[in-house]
Amino acid sequence: MTPSPKAAGLSSLARATNLAKERLQQCLMPPPAPRASPAVSAKKRPVPRAAEVLDEDEWTLRLEQIVERDYFPDLTRLKARLDWLEATRRCARAEPNPISPRARYYWGSAAGTHGGLG
Predict the structure, then answer these.
(1) What is the DSSP string of 84-103?
(2) CA 7 to chain centre
(3) What pTM did the predictor assign?
């Protein structure tokens, strides 16, 4: 006996749904590993360091360094370029080398020339 068209349509729909679920499961990440009990994980935690109390100036300096590093990574390069540009504008012949060490680090020997970066 042949199945009715409605029954055949439902079974193909069910097969398509199951196939879609299988493909979805293959694409998804596996579930995370089970967590250890709190007693076990408490033993593995590192011992917290003692808090270091900083004076206001030191704290501000460290905070500025963190903000520059994380939010403005090109700032050091830009400061070096500014030093180089100011030195080339000055063209101070009295100074043996008007280029700052920071600019020399970024531009090497080309920073000592007045003709540009090379």
Answers:
(1) HHHHHHH--SSSS--S-HHH
(2) 56
(3) 0.35
